[in-house]
Amino acid sequence: MPILSIVIPAYNEEKMILKAAYTISELLNKEKISAEILFVNDGSEDNTWKEIQRASQEIE
After folding, report:
1. Domain limits at 17?
2. Would you say 4 and 35 are in contact if contact means Cβ atoms under 8 Å apart?
3. What is the rounded CA–CA span in Å between residue 29 and residue 40?
4. Which of 4, 9, 20, 57 is in Cβ range 3.0-4.6 Å of 35 for a Cys bridge?
């Protein structure tokens, strides 16, 4: 069970979501912090949602 929840709002951030997810995940793993990363898609008009789904599949 995660001890920390990180909530990140996203609007038209398709180019940054994956990098942000990997960067945060790497830092949490390095520091051995049990956490969940929650992206909130705020009605983006680009492929933000697809990139959030991709990050979810690639990063555990």
Report:
1. 4-58
2. yes
3. 22
4. 4
